[in-house]
């Protein structure tokens, strides 16, 4: 049976439960603007709690989940800033920061069960860490190592993916395989707004819908694909609307409101797990720093736009909400900050060691039994190393 088209369309405005001032949203409040100009960003906010949505009425997550999310976002912010500093120190080759997108990163990890899978992009190292991967291992690939750093099967976290959207069909394949095996597994696949312009995005959505795969696509719409604004990428009413063409329900959420993200993503994961098939969620957020350390963001966006989004900071928003209700005090905030600093110190120590590699390792994991061509190339390498570099160890 074909799905009802009306049930596939997202709500008119993104779901928000805590506004940028840290106040809970009530039905009397206005809706958050869907456009991303500075004038809109600082305008009145957000969707009423009883507004219609594909997964029903939204409610605030339990307090303990929000407190845990705050601690995780503080750690994620510190992780981002420390990684950016390690780039300047020459310890990382590049780092795509998710500073400002911590709510999306933390929520993506926190809504998953132990048996679920996370498929990240290159900008989602904070989500990888929030999922339980060691921070140093999460940065291994970006430090110039030959491997990506962690045990994929143990953590159920796929490698960081640099080519846009290429991980999405893989995510659908894992979800479909789990369904065929009768496993209670959901796959959450991350991408950015730029990724929705790639063919892999559309192939993955079609593949997922036809196979009824238990996969949730989370699009972190930070308004730029490097320097290309969203208005130059799509003419769709929203990125969440793209799901309707494939028979996938779409939802829009304030990507700087972790409470709304936990609610919306949690419902999407639950729907996928209970047999409702794939889900598409668009989170409206913003990349506060440059695309990477190699980018000059001042060439394509102005200070007023950045300042407007800084007033919607996801950490400040939740901190204000929780402290205002007495759910978090200064002692708890100090503990969160101390934990984040210890993590950053371990990260600095782990990446302070210069990497020393044996170039012959390049040939060890190509085939179980090396081909004659590989043996010949290895011999050439060793000969050149003996003459030019003083030799290698094997």
TrEMBL record:
Provide the residue span(s) of the region labelled Disordered: 1-41
Cofactor(s) the protein needs: thiamine diphosphate
Q: Give the enzyme class.
A: oxidoreductase
Q: Where is the Dehydrogenase E1 component domain?
A: 73-340
> What Gene3D superfamilies does the record tag this protein with?
3.40.50.970
Q: What catalytic activity does the UniProt entry give for this protein?
A: N(6)-[(R)-lipoyl]-L-lysyl-[protein] + 3-methyl-2-oxobutanoate + H(+) = N(6)-[(R)-S(8)-2-methylpropanoyldihydrolipoyl]-L-lysyl-[protein] + CO2
Q: Which UniProt keywords apply?
A: Oxidoreductase, Thiamine pyrophosphate
Give EC number(s), comma-separated.
1.2.4.4
| InterPro entries assigned | Alpha-ketoacid_DH_E1_comp, DH_E1, THDP-binding
Protein family per UniProt: Belongs to the BCKDHA family.
As for what it does, the entry says: The branched-chain alpha-keto dehydrogenase complex catalyzes the overall conversion of alpha-keto acids to acyl-CoA and CO(2). It contains multiple copies of three enzymatic components: branched-chain alpha-keto acid decarboxylase (E1), lipoamide acyltransferase (E2) and lipoamide dehydrogenase (E3).
Q: What is this protein called?
A: 2-oxoisovalerate dehydrogenase subunit alpha
From the broadest rank down, the organism's phylogenetic lineage runs: Bacteria, Bacillati, Actinomycetota, Actinomycetes, Micrococcales
